[in-house]
Amino acid sequence: MIVHFGASRIELVQGDITQQRVDAIVNAANSGLLGGGGVDGAIHRVAGPTLMQETRMLYPDGCPTGSAVATTAGRLPAKYVFHAVGPVWAGGEKGEPKLLASAYQTCLELSLDHHCQSIAFPAISTGVYGYPIDLAAETALGVTWKFLKQKQHPEVVRFVLFGPGPYGAFARVLESLAE
Ligand code: APR
């Protein structure tokens, strides 16, 4: 599914984020930037060891929840990896929506700072961190919608959803925003 926004567009695809040919791909990291399973494991596996060496050297104190930091992308077919730290879902009353929104917002700002024309996001926090996919889709797409309306940049914001369930959840929210 593609929704156009003047010079920009939001794309939803099903697939593997490590295979995306874009300027920046976003990692769903932890605040220690220590690596892990899910998207994080897949990204580090494909990128190779330079990714961890770089995060250790540049960000020895990690990255706070709700923010993101940039590295190069090793062997991935991208220029940058933005390591975003989403919140662990704890029922929704612990500031999770704000923290998730701010993780997405920081990545979109990093894409401007690094002159990226295209960025690919996974559904941050919706795996190990347990964030309900429908609510995560509302936040992810809401932030992106507002950002593109204001900045008309980057040209492509792609959400790479892992399977039909997450894709459907994002598609329902994007359809309602585009109405
Ligand atoms: N491409 C795209 N999406 C993927 C991929 C992939 N290769 N692998 C998993 N996903 C999806 C999951 O299905 C889920 O919807 O990405 C979403 C995020 O899941 P996680 O990777 O578990 O990320 P998160 O919930 O943010 O948890 C972060 O997991 O592995 C650790 O180090 C990581 O501690 C951190 C935590």
Mean pLDDT: 97
Q: Sketch the topology as an H/E string, one letter per element.
A: EEEHHEEHEHEH
Query: Which regions are unreliable across 5 or more consecutive residues at pLDDT < 50?
Result: none
**Class by helix and strand content?**
alpha/beta
Q: Supply Rg.
A: 15 Å
Helix content: 25-40%
Strand segment count = 7
Strand line-up across the major sheet: 1-2-7-6-3-5-4
User: What separation lies between the terminal Cα atoms?
Assistant: 14 Å
Largest sheet: 7 strands, mixed
Beta-strand percentage? 15-25%
Walkthrough of the structure:
With about 180 residues, the chain is an alpha/beta fold. The chain is built from five helices and seven strands, in the order E-E-E-H-H-E-E-H-E-H-E-H. The protein has helices spanning about 40-45, 50-60, 95-115, 135-150, 165-179, and strands at about 1-5, 10-15, 25-30, 70, 80-85, 120, 155-160. Strands 1-2-7-6-3-5-4 form a seven-stranded mixed beta sheet, sandwiched between helices. The two termini are about 15 Å apart. The chain binds adenosine-5-diphosphoribose. Adenosine-5-diphosphoribose binds near residues 129 and 162.
